[in-house]
Amino acid sequence: MEKSNGTRVILFPLPLQGCINPMLQLANILYSRGFSITVVHTRFNAPKASNHPLFAFLEISDGLSESQINDDPTSNVMSLLAQINVNAETPFRDCLQKLLLRVSERVSCLIDDCGWLFTQSVAEGLNIPRLVLSTFKATFLNAYPILPCVRTKGYLPVSDSEAEDSVLEFPPLLKRDLSRLYGEFGEKLDPFIDTIVDTTMRSSGLVFMSCEELEKDSLTLSNEIFKVPVFAIGPFHSYFSASSSSLFRQDETCVHWLDNQEDKSVIYVSLGSVVNITESEFLEIAWGLSNSKQPFLWVVRPGLILGAEWIEPLSEELVRSLEEKGKIVKWSPQQEVLAHRAVGGFLTHNGWNSTLESICEGVPMICLPGGWDQMLNARFVSDVWRVGIHLEGQIERKEIEKAVRMLMVESEGAKIRERMNVLKDEVGRSVKDGGSSVRSIETLANHILSL
Ligand code: UDP
C-alpha cells in the first residue's frame, strides 16, 4: 500500500453478489492508492467484515423482515431493490451524518452503485461529492436514457420474421432479446431508469469495470451522455480476487476434482447468484451435459431451480449418468475455476462479472443470458467479439449437447478459442503497467483527491 493520503472514501454496495464483489475490489484498489475505506452496507447480504481487516464496516437497517430474508429476496431482484431503496434512505443518511462527525480524516467522496436511487440527494444534502459505480458494461448504461422509449416503440411482441432484426437504437441487441431484457416489469422500470439517469448526471463521476480495449467508443459516449468524468479502470478482479467477498461458502473440492481432468476438457456451468430456471429447464441442461459426454463442473446454487431446494428433481438414473463425467457443487471459487488449466469452456448467464472473468482467463463461452444487461453482454460475446456460442434461449438437451460439443471438440470451437486468446491478451495489456486501465486508476485517484 502507498502511504496514507489522509483521505477517506465511503463505499456503499447494493446487497447483491455481483455488486458486492466489484465494490470490495474497488475498496482494495483505492486502499492500495493510500485511501482509507469505510464500507456502509445493509444487514441483508452483509459482506464479511472479518475478511477485510483493513476497512471499517458500518451496517445499516434495510427494513427487511426475517421471513423476507429467509424467503430469499433475490428471487425477485426488482422488488428487493425497490423495497430497500425506500427502507434504507433514512438509516443511510443518519449513518453518514454520524460518520462525518466522527472520522479524523477528510471524507472526499461517496462511491455507490448506480442502482441506489436516494444516495445522490443524501450526498448533496451532506455536501459530499458522489461517484457512481456501474457494474454494467458502459454500452448498457448508455442505453438507459432510451430504454423506456425503445420499450414503447412497438417492437414488442416481436414476430418470428423480425426476431433477427437489430434494434437500431441499441446495437448489437436483436429484437428477439427485448422481451427477456425487460422481463415482466414493463413500465414499472421507467421511474427507476429515469432516476438513475438523473442522479448519474448530477454525480461527480462514473466508474466502470471495463476498459478501452473492450469499449472505447461506448466510454466516450458515456462521458457525452452523462456529462461527468468517466473512469474505466479495468476488470477489477485482475487486481484483487473476489473470493474474500463471496456471500456463499465456496466448495474447494471442485478445484481438486479439476486437478484430475485433462487440459481444457471441462465445461464449467454457472448461472450466477440471481437467475432462476424452471425444473424442466434444469433437467434439459442436465440431459444436455450428460449426453455431450464432456466432463463438466456445474454450480447449482440452492434456490436456482424454482420450487426446488437443490438437485432433488434429478432422477437416480440421471444422477448416475451425470456422476460418470461431472461434478455438481452449490457454489465455486469461480475465478480460480476459470483460471484452472482443465477448464475449456463456460456455459454462463453472462453477468458482467462472469463475462469479464471468462475473458481475462481466455475461456470461450456458451451464452444463456437470463435478462437485463445479460442480453447485451451475450450479444457482444457471440456476435461482436465472436468468442462464444449463443443458445438463443433454447434450453433444450439437443441444443445444449450440440453447443458443448461444438465449443469443446469441434473445429469451430478451436476458432472461437483463438479469437478469445487475442481478446484476453488485449484486455490483459490494459491492466499491466502503463495500460489504459492502470492509467485510469491514476486519474481516478487524482480526481478523488481533487474533490
Ligand atoms: N461466483 C462465484 N462462484 C460461483 C458463481 C459465481 O464466486 O459459483 C461469482 C462470480 O465470480 C462473479 C459473481 O459471483 O464475480 C457473479 O456476478 P455476475 O455479475 O457474473 O452475475 P450475477 O450473480 O450478478 O447475476
Question: What does it look like?
Answer:
With 451 residues, the protein is an alpha/beta fold. Helix content is 45%, strand content 14%. It folds into 2 domains: 7-236 and 434-450, Glycogen Phosphorylase B (Rossmann fold), CATH 3.40.50; 248-429, 3-Layer(aba) Sandwich (Rossmann fold), CATH 3.40.50. It is built from 19 helices and 13 strands. The strands form 2 sheets. A 7-stranded parallel sheet has the order 3-2-1-4-5-6-7, with helices on both faces. It has a 6-stranded parallel sheet with strand order 10-9-8-11-12-13, sandwiched between helices. Helix 12 crosses helix 17 and helix 17 (397-408) packs across helix 18. The longest helix is centred in the last third of the chain and has 20 residues, at 411-430. The chain is globular, with a radius of gyration of 22 Å. Uridine-5'-diphosphate (UDP) binds at residues 16-18, 21, 242, 246, 270, 272-274, 299, 331-332, 334-335, 351-354, 357. Uridine-5'-diphosphate binds at residues 16-18, 21, 242, 246, 270, 272-274, 299, 331-332, 334-335, 351-354, 357.
